[in-house]
Amino acid sequence: MLMIKEKTKTGNLPFEKALKRSKAERYVLRLYVAGLTPRSTKAIANVKEICEKYLQGRYELDVVDIYQQPKLAQGEQIIAAPTLIKKLPLPLRRLIGDMSDTERFLVGIDLRPKK
For every residue of the chain, which 3-state class applies, written as one string? Predict the structure, then answer.
């Protein structure tokens, strides 16, 4: 009986480490918007709301206006706005739209697996 408990405990160790790592990971996000259009302001509000709910204290969000900083947008090859880029943790991910679909957002930044 003791052997089974030890084996089970050891078997869960990688999962527990992964769970702790995912809770401790810091997310670096950059949201590219096109001025203060209704779609841009909605995307900013949606990203902030979702991040505060699911990543509270574990994220850094930079909002970049492609009209004020076109070289940054060009360097990231932004072709549509709003676009969110998850820089860290790797792999890099891109999401386009107003970020109103919370489930899609969470899957897109690898916080939830695809169903």
Answer: CHHHHHHHHHHHHHHHHHHHHHHHCCEEEEEEECCCCHHHHHHHHHHHHHHHHHCCCCEEEEEEECCCCHHHHHHCCCCCCCEEEEEECCCCEEEECCCCCHHHHHHHCCCCCCC
